[in-house]
Amino acid sequence: MEDDDLTRLLQQHASRHPASEGLRAKVRTQMTLQAAAQDRPPVRPRWRERFAALARIHPAFAGAGGLAAGIALTLAVMLIAPRLTPDGPVPDDLVAAHVRALQVGPLYEVASSDRHTVKPWFQGRLDYAPTVLDAPALRDQGFTLLGGRVQALQGRPTAVLAYQVRLHKIDLYQWPAERRSAPERLQRRGFNLVRWSDDAMQLWAVSDVDGAELERFAAAWRTAAAAH
Hints:
By secondary structure, the chain is an alpha+beta fold. The protein contains eight helices and seven strands; from the N terminus they run H-H-H-H-H-E-H-H-E-E-E-E-E-E-H. Strand 6 and strand 7 form a beta hairpin.
């Protein structure tokens, strides 16, 4: 669908209402996150206009106009926020995001070692529910949950959990997965990464801790998730 087609659908069928300041702020925040998280502009200039148009649409749709607007919104999200895949530039992007969080922050936007505090914080900020664990299988091995944040990754808001072991920080990124995969260790620019996926989520652990210890973290996570 071309930009002009989307504009025409919005003009002809979408019910429009003034957006609350809270909604406008959320749109501005997401655009700022995307621009700050990527070296290349994540949104084409004309799509910025589409964001502004979508921000003026009330969440409640009705009748045929609501259906058309819903289709337009879905197509817009698909075009603006491509799906994340475990290949390509993802490892480099994750390391860059991890370093940026360590240097300028935030390492976490919700600070808590309690998953019952961290998990609800993601509600309304993502279109999926990430798994949050602070189980004994992690704590007993020295891995402490610090909190969570939303990180723009390849133009898509992504859940990140921050853990600590001694003086080392571990970022655990996760997003929906379609299939299970065994753990795999990688290295980029001196940082270690371990990736795996369960029946629901693709997970990437990133840290400057040595590779064997990061694999131990991943194993403890999987143990805790299996018992969850």
